[in-house]
């Protein structure tokens, strides 16, 4: 008995010693250099977070700084705690990737005025008035529009092949919430498709979650059974692409390529490349320059990108058409939310007050239509296009 | 002579085990668990296992803030564990702690949102405390009433109540979301801090820790020295005995479940009013189920639960550090936690039972 106890004690001591030794070793590695903290809602299994994680690693590698990545941080007190821990670890600038992190990032920004807090997709930086708290987004509606062009080309091809008539050209869309970011996303996608295939209509269903593989799969299946000829989504799992692959229905993706799970139906995906913003904010912090309260990445900055077109599925000439439309968008001769492209309740819009300065009652406060188009992501980086335009049918608006 | 073959292994119940021996078995189990973890780590990732163990301690004790957070997480888990314990001791399986915490949190949040302009701060907090406790108690009281009156299965009933609570919270989150369509409430009263539980000194977490410390002491005394505690033990041992000696079993069941739910309500209050200042469907974070393990491992002894909740929170806090330091997916730390818990739970088996191997022929000669 005593022998066993003695042995146990020795083992415990060895373990304890080793533990101490390695812990102090770990610290040594990061002692030198500039540190950047990242907070992610999920890990690389979510397409949304994977897109951020890849950008974080790329930005840190390009600039030669140390990145500390915290994954699976919920949208609660844990986010504030993660931010505070990153400050303790010596980070000079901290990024968070999920909308629900915003309030906790603001809480941390107030407590640590010497650290820069950059929050992707948030809406409050321009009204909060903190010098060290910033929002960022990208004009992803342009990317969506281009992805919509690819969808329109595919629909035209299927109509030309006699698979269905022009009047039957209906697309489906799986969204997460009835949130402006989602509305802006599916509307610009629809307008892109309509730009090519004027008779197209679209049905939208909402899952009430940013990541729910089962619900997204069921949503896509419901749309397909409803007669949708092509499906796209704004939700982060492989649910919708998988459903499309099973049913053989073409799919336009978001956040990155889903070709792996849907090699026979994936057409193209638009996504935001966060590397330019990460690099911009890190460099600004290093040089002591101010980061704007709102930063909107564009096609120009390399923030709005498309994956390679899957030529096995896409219609012929898709790549060329996308390049042509992209050029027009960049030149400013074409605007995604041109008021001549859409009607609301049968009438064209020439004025709209959007809820840019977020408040609980959602009151509009800023005129966003001028010069013949809706100015998205100009008065703040996060999207605020929330008009429900004709041609798009919302199947359920519970969320 | 008996020609029947003796089985290769047979298991016998041990008599009373000396505490020293029991602890030796437990320590042995933890060491064995760490060794298995080390082997698994090296084989699957090639990372030095000692560095991983170091990271667990670093994650739990690395900075002052981390120690505070460890204590805070421990306090909430301990609070929920204390809540389920009286019910468990009575052999009434309250698996609804998750929902009871949620509904307590929802009551707190609704007070903070609906009454923020109507009541002065101190009165609002008083209303929050009362409504959180009542909400939790009602949520546990409903299944208790059905068990006492109709002998329904409380395990299923309380479990189902969790889903009802989750859906209720989901509904109100959509109702109160800011901005429209976001599906998030965000921090409630961030600028005015109305309805936030007061902060003691410079620590955000001290109040929560103190409240739970007091509950721990009270629960220990309640279970061990009060008449109620005695009645709970008797009902747990044998309902018939309890009836025979004149205990009103229905009353004890309902009373104990109300208490169980009320303390869960307090946990919800501390989470929403004390630290998070928001309500989400996942705010209870599975603690309602982890608490089952905390309570069982401690054999329903509130003081021992301090130790078991510490152990579980230590593993959880360490897990986050592992994924940050080594770029490993969080699932990997779940694997390590699983191995350690498997051995710890297994050790209780070896404390209760003895494994006898068939004596080899050689020895028989």
Summarize it.
With 399 residues, chain A is α/β, with parallel strands linked by helices. Chain A contains eleven helices and 17 strands. Classes of the chains: A alpha/beta (399), B mainly alpha (365).
Topology:
The complex is a heterodimer of chains A (399) and B (365).
Chain A: H1 2-29, E1 35-39, H2 47-63, E2 66-70, H3 77-88, E3 91-96, H4 102-111, E4 116-120, H5 125-128, E5 133-138, H6 140-160, E6 170-175, H7 180-196, E7 201-206, H8 213-225, E8 230-234, H9 239-247, E9 251-254, E10 266-272, H10 275-286, E11 294-297, E12 304-306, H11 318-331, E13 353-354, E14 366-367, E15 369-370, E16 373-374, E17 392-394
Parallel strand pairs in A: 1-2, 1-3, 3-4, 4-5, 5-11, 6-7, 6-8, 7-17, 8-9, 9-10
Antiparallel strand pairs in A: 10-12, 13-14, 15-16
Helix pairs in contact in A: 2-10, 3-4, 6-7, 6-11, 8-9
Chain B: E1 9-13, H1 19-45, H2 49-61, H3 64-89, H4 97-114, H5 121-150, H6 154-176, H7 206-225, H8 227-237, H9 239-244, H10 249-276, H11 287-297, H12 302-326, H13 330-352, E2 353-357, H14 361-364
Question: What does this protein structure show overall?
Answer:
The complex is a heterodimer of chains A (399) and B (365). In chain A, 39% of the residues lie in helices and 18% in strands. With 399 residues, chain A is of the alpha/beta class. Chain A folds into two domains: 33-138 and 275-286 and 291-295, 3-Layer(aba) Sandwich (Rossmann fold), CATH 3.40.50; 140-271 and 304-335 and 384-394, Rossmann fold (3-Layer(aba) Sandwich), CATH 3.40.50.2300. In chain A, the strands form four sheets. In chain A, strands 12-10-9-8-6-7-17 form a seven-stranded mixed beta sheet, with helices on both faces. Chain A has a six-stranded parallel beta sheet with strand order 2-1-3-4-5-11, with helices on both faces. Chain A has a two-stranded antiparallel ribbon with strand order 13-14. In chain A, helix 2 (47-63) packs across helix 10 (275-286) and helix 3 (77-88) runs parallel beside helix 4. Chain A starts with a helix and ends in a 5-residue tail after the last strand. Residues 16-31 of chain A have low confidence and may be disordered. Chain B is mostly helical. Chain B has two domains: 1-47 and 332-365, no CATH class; 65-327, ABC transporter involved in vitamin B12 uptake, BtuC. Chain B has 14 helices and two strands. Chain B has helices at 19-45, 49-61, 64-89, 97-114, 121-150, 154-176, 206-225, 227-237, 239-244, 249-276, 287-297, 302-326, 330-352, 361-364; strands spanning 9-13, 353-357. Chain B has a two-stranded antiparallel sheet. In chain B, helix 2 packs across helix 12 (302-326), helix 3 (64-89) packs across helix 12 and helix 11 (287-297) crosses helix 12 (302-326). The longest helix of chain B has 30 residues, at 121-150. Chain B is globular. The mean pLDDT of chain B is 90. Chains A and B meet through helix 1, strand 2, helix 3, helix 4 and helix 7 of A and helix 1, helix 2, helix 3 and helix 12 of B.
């Amino acid at each position: 008995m005593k022998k066993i106890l003695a042995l146990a004690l020795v083992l415990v001591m060895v373990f304890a010693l080793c533990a101490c030794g390695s812990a102090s070793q770990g610290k040594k590695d990061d002692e030198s250099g500039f540190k950047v903290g990242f907070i992610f809602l999920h890990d690389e299994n979510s397409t949304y977070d994977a897109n951020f994680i890849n950008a974080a690693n790329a930005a840190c590698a390009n600039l030669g700084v140390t990145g500390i990545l915290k994954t699976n941080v919920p949208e609660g007190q844990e986010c504030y705690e993660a931010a505070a821990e990153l400050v303790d670890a010596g980070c000079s600038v901290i990024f968070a990737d999920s909308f629900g992190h915003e309030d906790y990032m603001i809480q941390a920004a107030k407590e640590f005025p010497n650290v820069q807090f950059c929050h992707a997709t948030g809406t409050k930086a321009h009204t909060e008035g903190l010098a060290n708290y910033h929002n960022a987004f990208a004009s992803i509606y342009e990317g969506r529009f281009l992805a919509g062009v690819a969808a329109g080309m595919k629909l035209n091809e299927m109509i030309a092949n006699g698979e269905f008539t022009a009047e039957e050209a209906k697309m489906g869309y799986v969204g997460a919430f009835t949130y402006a970011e989602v509305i802006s996303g599916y509307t610009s996608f629809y307008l892109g498709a309509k730009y090519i295939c004027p008779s197209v209509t679209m049905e939208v269903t909402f899952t009430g979650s940013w990541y729910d593989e089962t619900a997204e799969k069921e949503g896509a299946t419901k749309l397909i059974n409803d007669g949708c000829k092509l499906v796209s989504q704004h939700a982060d799992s492989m649910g919708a692409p998988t459903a499309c692959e099973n049913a053989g229905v073409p799919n336009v993706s978001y956040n990155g390529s889903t070709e792996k799970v849907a090699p026979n139906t994936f057409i193209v995906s638009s996504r935001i490349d966060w590397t330019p913003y990460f690099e911009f904010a890190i460099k600004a912090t290093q040089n002591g320059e101010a980061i704007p309260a709102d930063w909107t990445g564009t096609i120009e900055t390399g923030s709005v990108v498309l994956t390679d077109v899957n030529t096995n599925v896409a219609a012929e000439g898709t790549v060329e058409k996308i390049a042509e439309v992209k050029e027009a968008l960049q030149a400013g001769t074409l605007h995604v939310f041109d008021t001549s492209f859409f009607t609301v309740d049968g009438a064209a819009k020439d004025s709209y007050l959007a809820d840019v300065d977020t408040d609980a009652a959602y009151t509009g406060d800023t005129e966003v239509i001028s010069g013949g188009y809706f100015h998205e992501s100009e008065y703040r980086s996060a999207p605020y296009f929330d008009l429900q335009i004709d041609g798009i049918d919302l199947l359920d608006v519970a969320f | 002579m008996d020609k029947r073959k003796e089985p290769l292994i047979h298991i016998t119940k041990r008599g009373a085990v000396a505490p020293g021996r029991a602890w030796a078995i437990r320590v042995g189990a933890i060491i064995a668990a760490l060794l298995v973890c080390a082997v698994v780590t090296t084989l699957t990732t090639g990372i030095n296992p000692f560095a991983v163990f170091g990271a667990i301690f670093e994650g739990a004790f690395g900075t002052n803030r981390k120690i505070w957070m460890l204590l805070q997480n421990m306090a909430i888990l301990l609070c929920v564990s204390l809540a389920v314990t009286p019910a468990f001791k009575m052999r009434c399986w309250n698996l609804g702690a998750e929902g009871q915490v949620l509904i307590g949190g929802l009551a707190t949040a609704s007070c903070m949102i609906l009454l923020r302009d109507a009541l002065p701060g101190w009165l609002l907090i008083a209303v929050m405390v009362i409504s959180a406790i009542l909400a939790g108690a009602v949520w546990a009281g409903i299944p208790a009433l059905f068990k006492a009156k109709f002998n329904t299965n409380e395990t299923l009933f309380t479990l189902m109540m969790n889903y009802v609570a989750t859906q209720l919270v989901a509904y109100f989150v959509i109702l109160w979301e800011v901005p429209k369509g976001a599906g998030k409430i965000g921090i409630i009263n961030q600028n005015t801090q109305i309805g936030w539980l007061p902060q003691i000194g410079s620590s955000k977490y001290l109040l929560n820790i103190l409240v739970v410390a007091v509950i721990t002491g009270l629960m220990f005394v309640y279970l061990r020295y009060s008449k109620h505690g005695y009645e709970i033990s008797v009902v747990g041992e044998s309902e018939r005995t309890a009836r025979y000696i004149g205990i009103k079993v229905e009353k004890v069941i309902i009373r104990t479940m109300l208490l169980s739910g009320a303390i869960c309500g307090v946990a919800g209050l501390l989470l929403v009013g004390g630290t998070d200042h928001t309500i989400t469907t996942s705010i209870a974070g599975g603690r309602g189920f982890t608490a089952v393990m905390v309570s069982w491992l401690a054999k329903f002894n509130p003081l021992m639960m301090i130790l078991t909740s510490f152990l579980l929170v230590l593993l959880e806090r360490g897990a986050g550090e592992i994924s940050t330091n080594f770029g490993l997916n969080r699932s990997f730390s779940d694997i390590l936690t699983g191995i350690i818990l498997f051995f710890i739970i297994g050790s209780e088996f070896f404390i209760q039972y003895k494994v006898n191997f068939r004596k080899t022929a050689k020895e028989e000669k």
